[in-house]
Amino acid sequence: MGSLPQLSILKGPTRPLVVSQLGRIFEKVAAGPAASNIALIFEENGQSRQLSYSQVDQITNKFARVISETIKTKNLKPNSDGDHIIAVNMHPSDHLILVLLSIWKSGCAYLPLDHSFPASRIDHIIQESKPVIVIYDEGKATPKPAYFPDSVISDSKNFPAKLSYEELLTASDGRSDKRLEDKERVYQKDDLAIVLYTSGSTGIPKGVRIPHKIILNRLQWQFKTFPFSETEKVCVFKTALTFVDSVCEIWGPLISGISILIVPKSVTLDPEKLIQKLDDYKIERLVLVPSLLRSILMCLELKKNRTLLKNLKLWVCSGETLTTSLAEEFFRYFPENEYKLCNFYGSTEIMGDVTFYIISGMQQLKNLLTVPIGAPVDNTIVYLLDPELRPVKTGDIGELFVSGLNLASGYVNNRDKEKFLENQLAIDPIFSKLYRTGDFARLQNDVLLYEGRTDSQVKIRGHRVDLSEVEKAVSGVEGVEKAVVLCYQPGEMNQALLAFVKSSALMNENQIENILRSKLTSYMVPQVILVESIPLLVNGKIDRQALLKSYENTNNNDDSSVEIEIDYSGVKPAQMAAAKVLFDTVASVLNRSARSAISLDSNFYEIGGNSLNSIYTITRLNEEGYQISIGDFLSAIDLGEVLERMTSSNDIHCSPPTYTSELLKNEHKSAVLDIITTSFYQKADLEQWLMPDIFESDYKELMDALWEPLVEKALSFVAKAESGKIIGVGLNFDARDEPDVQITSKLTVIFEFLETVEGPVRDKCLPGGKGKILHSFMMGTHSSLSPKENVAVMQFMEDEVLKLATERHFEGIFTTNTSPLTQQLGTDVYHYQTLLDYQVNRYVASDNTRPFGMAPDSQRAIVQWKPIKSDIVVDV
Fold it and tell me: pTM of whole model > 0.85?
């Protein structure tokens, strides 16, 4: 009784670990038999790039020299922890991996940022971690990187050096591609490899310092427990770089001589595209959060194709609670004993994964309420301790502590030291520190069972979110008197992040949520519920269960129409039956989480939808006899477009409408002016932020100034319906022969902005001389068109622009898209190459004002190029 084996202490196998920097390990791999192997594969917009291990090694050696020399030449100092950190804000691509490896080779550590982070979060990260350089991928065309807040820029002492990927590439030209000697590298304290920022328990994000040795310990265990098979040639990197799972996705294959496929974010967000990509490359292992697993299983069920993903034998779930019901659903699709489903547990501070449990079939799930989190990885001990830090007895619940080689080196600026304690229970120096996870667990049959949190942290789409951080942001909204943030049904499909708000301001839920989008990362924005009062317990504390119960009771109300307004305005009589099925299905799926009325104009995601419940919605529609592909549903602008795309066996299929084009003539001027005015004055994405200083008469002034050269150049056209009615207009110029017009209205702000984002790209990246670049300048459609007709006319006009450019022997088409529809068409349908993705609210005009400062971070201006000849490719 009371002996050690009966206490809740689990020790993983002890194995020797040879410590080295991962950049050095990669160099050895690249110099060996794997030199000619493909290391990086990246596909986007119909283009594919591949680099061998030898090529990656040579390129990154050059980049590392530039980074190291920049730091030494400018005498850039380490931060207060003694670390030389380089922040990286780049979209997933082969360029990103090259930069990360170069940073390690230079002797520095990398700190991932994300384009979706709000300015306040970036501000805090840069101010606290003090990176010496920020490397970004928006190129020289960006006047100022969108993620540098004013407060950082104005403080020259804290402002890191900026280096775009294009500048790094240019500076590396002519440099030696030999590996850097130790004396050429920047000194790196404590073997630091990565800094990852997580949600902080005080409401402020904190940076976790991850050394090379803990990454190596985690990877060494992985190679032993889940070795690469003889047929495994390609692995996949799809996880956000700010998420700790990305570390093993990238570096596990790359120090093993295996290729990695870098998946663009657009593919990761679309389960249908992701499945196809995984199947095409015969991917054999995948790390994902349970919510994505559920989306994939739903998608596979919709496709009715049992051969899809047959090569994907190892599925690893982490980041969220894996329910037994989801595990059972997995084995209803994938044969038992042929496929493995694993449940990993951990956090950023313990290298993401510190315990694991492998499921081979249904038998293991019998009599289990939850899937175990398993046993420790190598060189690791897990303790379940009571409040006095004494081990609890087997079967009792205790707080989970971790010790060993999987522990981070604390936090940036030595914050929250109480999370890393001296281990009084161990003698071996490698177990001298304890990390306090904040989780409860119990030991049963030699495996750990997760029992919840000790604090307010939850997992949202795999990201750790501290409810206090969200609550602090909500409480900071002007007019909010009291806010309580809770998570409903964590880990389940109907999980919801909720903010119960008592407010004196005349704002509705949507307005508060819009304010929060400028303060919080997207996955942290809660559903706001306005309440008249916050219920209290007899002891004066907030009655959280009462709030959740009120949400649940409202959510489970069978009379959905009482809670959710459904508006059938504008639905055609022939489509009313389908509309009722669609709207009722959406109302049923979203239920209480619906943010506004359901109508033709509603965007599924803006009213509360997400990728998971969108697939559930499609499944329900299929059951009702209406077919729509996942891609069509995800890309639909609104429910009106979803309705148009839905078809059933009873539908009468009609021939698509026929449109014709005609070069611009003087007789078209009145109709063109009407379309341009309604398209841009009433609906444009930029003009809305300049109201009320923009007038309809401003467009007449603009058209009067442009009309004669537009007609004379004969590059513009109108689109006509079969009736002869003008329903669209495309205005184009030769990019090297555009007229210099003078206008006096506020529209000059728009054109100054467009020239700011387009000019550097056009002048430095595109072919020179007249007759080379067709500039698709303005495109508009008639206001009477339905959503479906609008898309059809836009597609027709895009085809006409391509035809015109081809006939006139232009080398390519250049355009800037500011609306989500044209951005989607340009990228997904017409495969334009994106040269610049610019966040419009960061634009500073010539008078030092921010004319679009009220725009959300998600509003972008995308500068794009489509080559006409296959050999004309712009390197960005």
Answer: no
